[in-house]
Design brief:
The complex is a heterodimer of chains A (192) and B (84).
Chain A (H helix, E strand, L loop, with lengths): L2 H26 L4 H18 L9 H20 L2 H9 L24 H6 L1 H12 L3 H11 L5 H8 L3 H28 L1
Chain B lengths: L3 H10 L7 H13 L1 H24 L6 H19 L1
The chains are: A mainly alpha (192), B mainly alpha (84).
């Protein structure tokens, strides 16, 4: 293939699918735009190399998304190493939240805000990101993939190679921590 | 009868999977009687909706023209290296 013709093809991909792929990657990489951009770039290069094998059974966008997804999973698996996961599961932080009788240490109360108003509030975003940054790696990965990327539980278990009960344990812990952090730094303060 | 620890786990699970009838019943029963767990349940639902809204907002921000140009340049460089 002549390189000029190839380049026109890839240039078209960048214009047509760049935004979509970048958004797909950003939500799965904890909002890391730079990392997402690098992965999208690698996807276009890999796509060009494999283009002859593309049989047109799906749309180009679906096909490129498949390549990108594979790269993201590879990256995440390296980051969320198996030993991290084993540590994270075996550690039981429930005494941080509950007494030995299973009762709350600190009583949760309903929060008086609408999701829409929170979404528009930049200070809330900042606090939310700080609270998410405090989560252990594995919890943060599972939580963002579930709540920000909107992936199904099954897809996350498959991507990270964990059981569904592990996923539910991690989601429960992430929600307990985030709820307490947001209550402390945001909702609790506003009520005073 | 669920403890608060168990009820909070079921309230969280309910956002990620379908509870069994028995789990659902025990969770509802606990929530009826426990204001603290009702508070927790409301908090995690609000958190989920807020994150969904944030996600819709951030996905409208695409790549800038500069970023697209930089991607094109890098890809072009990689393709040229392949040819040589």
């Amino acid at each position: 293939m002549g390189s000029n013709k190839d380049f026109l093809l890839v240039e078209g991909w960048v214009e047509e699918h760049g935004d979509y792929l970048h958004c797909f990657a950003t939500t799965r990489l904890n909002g890391d735009r730079e990392m997402a951009r690098d992965m999208v770039q690698e996807t276009f290069i890999a796509g060009w190399k494999a283009y002859q094998a593309f049989e047109g059974k799906s749309t180009v966008r679906t096909w490129l998304t498949g390549i990108l997804k594979y790269k993201i999973i590879d990256h995440i698996r390296k980051q969320v190493r198996v030993e991290n996961l084993a540590d994270e599961i075996s550690r039981d932080p429930s005494s941080d939240w509950f007494g030995s009788d299973g009762r709350w240490h600190e009583s949760p109360k309903a929060w008086g805000s609408s999701p829409e108003s929170l979404c528009e509030n930049d200070n809330f975003h900042m606090i939310l990101h700080r609270c998410m940054a405090k989560l252990p790696d594995v919890q943060r990965q599972v939580f963002t993939q579930r709540e920000l990327s909107g992936d199904s539980s099954d897809a996350i278990c498959k991507d990270l190679d964990i059981s569904s009960s592990n996923l539910h344990v991690l989601m429960h812990r992430a929600r307990l921590s985030l709820r307490a952090c947001l209550n402390h730094h945001w909702f609790g303060k506003r009520e005073l | 009868m669920y403890s608060c620890k168990q009820a909070s786990r079921m309230a969280s699970d309910a956002l990620d999977r379908k509870l069994t009838w028995s789990e659902f019943f025990h969770l509802k029963l606990h929530l009826m009687m426990c204001g603290m767990c009702r508070g927790f349940n409301q908090n995690i639902h609000l958190l989920e909706s807020a994150l969904k809204n944030i996600n819709h907002k951030s996905s409208r921000e695409g790549l800038s023209a500069d970023e697209k140009e930089s991607i094109k340049k890098s890809v072009k460089r990689a393709l040229e290296n392949e040819h040589h």
